[in-house]
Amino acid sequence: xxxxxxxxxxxxxxxxxxxxxxxxxxxxxxxxxxxxxxxxxxxxxxxxxxxxxxxxxxxxxxxxxxxxxxxxxxxxxxxxxxxxxxxxxxxxxxxxxxxxxxxxxxxxxxxxxxxxxxxxxxxxxxxxxxxxxxxxxxxxxxxxxxxxxxxxxxxxxxxxxxxxxxxxxxxxxxxxxxxxxxxxxxxxxxxxxxxxxxxxxxxxxxxxxxxxxxxxxxxxxxxxxxxxxxxxxxxxxxxxxxxxxxxxxxxxxxxxxxxxxxxxxxxxxxxxxxxxxxxxxxxxxxxxxxxxxxxxxxxxxxxxxxxxxxxxxxxxxxxxxxxxxxxxxxxxxxxxxxxxxxxxxxxxxxxxxxxxxxxxxxxxxxxxxxxxxxxxxxxxx
Length: 381
What we know:
Elements: H1 2-14, H2 20-45, E1 71-73, E2 87-91, H3 98-108, E3 115-119, H4 130-139, E4 143-144, H5 148-161, H6 198-207, H7 210-218, E5 222-228, E6 232-237, H8 252-257, E7 260-261, E8 268-269, E9 275-276, H9 277-287, E10 294-298, E11 307-308, E12 312-314, E13 324-332, E14 338-346
Parallel strand pairs: 1-5, 2-3, 3-4, 6-10, 10-12
Antiparallel strand pairs: 2-13, 5-6, 7-8, 7-9, 11-12, 13-14
Helix pairs in contact: 1-2, 2-9, 4-7, 5-6
């Protein structure tokens, strides 16, 4: 590694405008050098001999969380091995974009009799028609995992039931019998702040039917899909998972929100500054016995866009901000072979109407143009 670093430094210093080829070589060497550093860091991060303190994050017992399903196994009747089912369709963050969801399913040729949909979380909020998306999921017996936005809605719904709600937002009546506010009545307060903008999520929570609320509450943090040919053990989580921690011991907040992980402590973070959690996950899986390896299908990270690694598949491609809505379709060909296909459609940018929708309204169906060219979008949240 020292040799690579030395060569990279020398070539960078001697490169001039007349030595652009040398500069290209230098860049490649620098990349090799950086990749080697990352490899060593990841390797060290999963070395049990180098644990600091009592243990890494997540390996000790954690308190139980009420009103939350930690882990659920997909019913065998929904698996493609079943003679009546041929495909699993994993869908990235929908965020209330009902029209785009319909366009995507039309593009993949969805058949409710032979296909089973698994939503990777965040069906609701931000987009124009969250209620319609939830109704569709219920009607088609789709599976789901709990995302951070479902969690917000369910917390608000619980607070409404026990009458523990904060003060209403501007132009929102505190009277639960009051009609839904018109589009023009909502303002642009930041929805990420419970102290200023949570009234928007509470408004959607007020509109939930008992069937919708029950469906969202039934979505587990982690869905265990069982073994899939060529992929092995497959699980679904919205944000991610910590390597080396049993599924039943994964921290709920981390599962729903993580994007990066601290390599020394394995503490997850929602921040994007750090090592992506899936790099540690893939490194850890690579050293396990083949029969012990797991592949995670996740969403939650539109800025990174489509991320198809050996043991992790990220399919959030920023639909609600004008990116794409993406599905990963698994068709099991035989006991040894599964075909994976990634399909996407272009989405409208609903962020330009921030505050005008937040999930309780349903819009009439409008034609969505399928995107058959170009790369995957990656809007920012």
